[in-house]
Amino acid sequence: xxxxxxxxxxxxxxxxxxxxxxxxxxxxxxxxxxxxxxxxxxxxxxxxxxxxxxxxxxxxxxxxxxxxxxxxxxxxxxxxxxxxxxxxxxxxxxxxxxxxxxxxxxxxxxxxxxxxxxxxxxxxxxxxxxxxxxxxxxxxxxxxxxxxxxxxxxxxxxxxxxxxxxxxxxxxxxxxxxxxxxxxxxxxxxxxxxxxxxxxxxxxxxxxxxxxxxxxxxxxxxxxxxxxxxxxxxxxxxxxxxxxxxxxxxxxxxxxxxxxxxxxxxxxxxxxxxxxxxxxxxxxxxxxxxxxxxxxxxxxxxxxxxxxxxxxxxxxxxxxxxxxxxxxxxxxxxxxxxx
Length: 339
What we know:
Rossmann fold; four-stranded antiparallel sheet; 14 helices
């Protein structure tokens, strides 16, 4: 038995499970300098506590970071809790203040601001990994959220355990397991009141839909949805490889004949890849992909489709993708220039 394995025998069952997740999913390597995002909630406080316990086994160099979005009261108390917890374990602490525009999609805006602030801080401090406290329950909520919005294979893959520089060591642990560990290990935390605000779709999934599914349909629904996400993630990886081969010489235009010969999943992925190459910030909905499929399948040799910030143009046997400044949405899935 290795020295590291003997060391982990001293840990709780929960910490050993996180250790296995880190090892099997290659989330962290020995000697990594890691920025740990800590909000003061149970998930992130347990994350910091667990990584601190694993410091000796993994020889990690940790920095704790609290991101203050300025969206509610009480953030100073949350930051103080995180700082006290980190300092008690000789972990450096960073408080990052971000400004979030109050828009309809405030959740998405806040998340983007938070991840940008964490990435900037990690770069400044020389941290090669940023650890996030997302759980298996968060993964289940994400799959349901994408399913309700309407998605394809990529959305059903949910959150990746590794999307460099971000890693999610708690991705195999449920929220209930984490709270039980916090109670057992006497880890203080603060609940965010925004997590129960029914105005946000994710909160309604978290507090109404997911408990309903667990109570009335399958008590292991979280595990089932998390496993589904893993399966679709593996399928996504395979499709990425297949698509890169099928469209390697077809950017930013592609042969209509080649596209028509692709299976539906590869067709979607090829289109996504070409759009990404031309307009990285554009995200295609299912109605957009259906409209492009109609453009490819049609007999008209010259036609065009206007999407938000993107023009898809068919010229003879080729399909071209052009980024535009226009942000006019597709209306009722109809193609401009196609009868």
